[in-house]
Design a protein that fits this description.
This protein has a single domain, classed as Rossmann fold (3-Layer(aba) Sandwich). It is built from six helices and seven strands. The chain has a five-stranded parallel β-sheet with strand order 2-1-3-4-7, sandwiched between helices. Strands 5-6 form a two-stranded antiparallel ribbon. Strand 5 and strand 6 form a beta hairpin. The protein is globular. It starts with a strand and ends with a helix. This is Nucleoside 2-deoxyribosyltransferase. InterPro entries: 2'-dNMP_N-hydrolase (IPR051239), Nucleoside_deoxyribTrfase (IPR007710).
Length: about 190
């Protein structure tokens, strides 16, 4: 089973090392990992701007895979990387299995409150709001309910762990759990 490996690791200086390790873990579970940097099955037309060729290449990868595992560790804020979430939703819309993992064990509400600092305040109804009186989501989930819900509706799992200090982007324990779950679906 070909599995698209979505996540913000593409921005790390050792992205290729992480890709190789993820592919090794996939192979150990009888899966073939496909990383965004891999050559796409169809080369995007050269007349497109570079950013559009990246998009088209990633979309071709997603379409060529039978499943997706998304690294949903919060990225530059309290929630997952927007591009990764888009890819997860795209695969879910194709009707294929999706799995997610996060190396941030706290619930979305706790991370959002921490991110907002003093701008988060309690409401009279027991909930929380930001400085613009917009309610904070509180369902005890790993991330926004549409992310957790999409994974659950696809029959997937959202694994969370608390990695060792300094291993936020390199601990692949939860990723491996997702691989094992996918392999069990084959």
């Amino acid at each position: 089973m070909r599995v698209y490996l979505a996540g913000p690791e593409v921005f790390l200086p050792d992205a290729l090392d992480i890709a190789a390790e993820k592919k090794r873990i996939c192979a150990a579970h009888g899966l073939e990992g496909v990383f965004p940097f891999d050559t796409p099955p169809q080369a995007p037309p050269a007349h497109h701007p570079y950013w559009m060729r990246i998009y088209l290449g990633n979309e071709a990868h997603i379409r060529s895979c039978a499943a997706l595992i998304a690294n949903l560790t919060p990225f530059r804020g309290p929630s997952a990387d927007a591009g990764t979430v888009y890819e997860l939703g795209f695969m879910k819309a194709l009707g294929r299995p999706v799995m997610g993992y996060s190396n941030a064990p706290a619930d979305f509400l706790d991370r959002t409150r921490s991110f907002l600092g003093g701008e988060a305040r309690p409401r009279d109804d027991g909930g929380w709001e930001d400085a613009e009186a917009m309610g904070l989501e509180d369902f005890g989930l790993a991330d926004n309910l549409m992310i957790d819900g999409g994974i659950a509706a696809a029959g997937g799992a959202f694994e969370r762990i608390d990695p060792a200090e300094g291993r936020r982007w390199h601990d692949l324990t939860a990723f491996e759990r997702c691989c094992a779950r996918l392999a069990a679906l084959k």
